[in-house]
Write a structure and sequence with these properties.
By secondary structure, the chain is mostly helical. It has helices at residues 6-23, 29-63, 69-96, 108-116, 119-126, 131-135, 141-155, 160-185, 188-202, 206-240, 244-250, 252-261, 264-277, 283-296, 299-315, 322-337, 345-356, 364-396. Helix 3 (69-96) packs across helix 14 (283-296).
């Protein structure tokens, strides 16, 4: 029996949903429940995925060899490159405003939440009064992220016996949650069908919504290409004096694999072999920077999350303040750190950023249709950024590169 790949299933579901919403508008209630169940399943895995991903990632940083100088430079690069990616997306989405004209209906209670939550209040709420309450409330995700960062850090400060025990425990939890996430993602076509059929039936001007979605996809892809083909090569050139585009060609096998599989974890062995054999990076540097990058460095995902959230806000007619956009930038950065290196994991993590600024999670339904295509580009950017990091760190350690 021939198995249809997920991205084709999603495309088919999208086409059928549009047809159903137009032709059977009065019967949308019979299928919209599938979208509601899918969103509930996404909400179900958000907190365990975020907590286990961040704790595992931070614990791995602290327990890796050569954590001192090498670790400081690596983490500094990853945070810096992700921030640059987010700012690129932020500038593009504010200039071109792809969501304007989609005219989605915003519930009154959501609108009140957006206006009442100030930047100061959001920062204060990052520190939880009761972490167990935060675990039970999806609107307190910033508190969960903050606690996960602290928890992972202090795991590295315990004795070896407890450190190993806790690190192994959270690695096991993360593996289970990732499998559960992949299980939920398998139902994306059904979720898209229910959400999009309902959305199309409600939309008075379908062409405007499709046009906005197309513009959104173009802006995300353009932002990723600018970051990957201009920003990162400039950093490599400035920091190493070597030719970044030669390194890019050296790495075409892992980059193409990342693009087609949408999984940075699955590409990791090829990436390590490529930078060692072709670019001249030592095993000492690559074995530290690349696995760490596959865990916490998600430039493409960070850019996508920022653009997607502001696009959804524009589609709902919500004008985010400067303070709220700063929160979007910070949350996108933190969410990208906790993003698992599996296909469409960024789709789950975007709900964190939506919750941080009080936007409805139902807005995810608007971007589901093109998420798989964007996922390919953002994964390629993630892996390319990891490669650039290994090249820069190798050069800073006095290693001779081959380009």
């Amino acid at each position: 029996m021939v198995r249809i790949q997920l991205h084709w299933q999603i495309l088919i579901a999208l086409v059928l949903a549009v047809a159903y919403g137009i032709l059977l508008e009065d019967y949308v209630g019979y299928v919209s429940w599938m979208g509601d169940v899918f969103l509930r399943a996404l909400k179900m895995i958000i907190i365990p995925l975020v907590f286990s991903s961040i704790v595992t990632g931070i614990a791995n940083i602290g327990t890796a060899k050569n954590i001192g100088r090498l670790g400081f430079k690596t983490v500094g690069y990853y945070l810096g490159s992700s921030t640059l990616a987010i700012l690129t997306g932020l500038i593009l989405v504010n200039i071109f405003k792809p969501g304007v004209g989609a005219d989605l209906e915003l519930k009154e209670d959501v609108s009140m939440d957006l206006t009442e939550n100030s930047f100061r209040d959001t920062l204060l709420n990052i520190v939880p009064e009761n972490i167990f309450f935060s675990f039970t409330d999806n609107t307190e995700l910033l508190s969960v992220i903050f606690f996960a960062l602290l928890f992972g850090f202090f795991i590295t400060r315990t004795g070896e016996k407890h450190r190993v025990l806790l690190s192994d425990f959270f690695k096991a939890v993360l593996e289970v949650i990732m499998k559960l996430t992949l299980f939920v993602i398998r139902f994306t076509p059904l979720g898209i069908f229910g959400l999009m059929a309902h959305r199309v039936a409600q939309q008075e001007n379908l062409f405007e919504m499709i046009n906005s979605l197309g513009m959104y996809m173009i802006i995300v892809v353009a932002g990723i290409l600018i970051h990957a083909l201009i920003t990162l090569p400039m950093i490599v050139r400035f920091m190493t004096k070597s030719n970044p585009y030669k390194h890019f060609m050296f790495s075409r096998t892992p980059l193409l694999t990342a693009f087609t599989t949408s999984s940075s974890n699955a590409t990791l062995p090829l990436t390590m072999d490529s930078v060692q054999s072709n670019s001249g990076v030592s095993n000492k540097v690559s074995s530290f920077t690349l696995p760490l990058g596959a865990t916490i460095n998600m430039d493409g995902a960070a850019l996508y999350e920022c653009v997607a959230v502001i696009f959804i806000a524009q589609a709902y007619g919500v004008d985010l303040t400067v303070g709220q956009q700063v929160i979007v930038v910070l949350t996108s950065l933190l969410a990208s750190v906790g993003s698992a290196g599996i296909p469409m994991a960024g789709l789950v993590m975007i709900t964190i950023v939506l919750s941080a600024v009080g936007l409805p999670l139902e807005g995810v339904g608007l971007i589901l249709a093109v998420d798989r295509i964007i996922d390919m580009f953002r994964t390629g950017a993630n892996v390319w950024s990891d490669i650039c990091c290994s090249i820069i760190i190798a050069s800073s350690e006095g290693e001779e590169l081959k380009a």
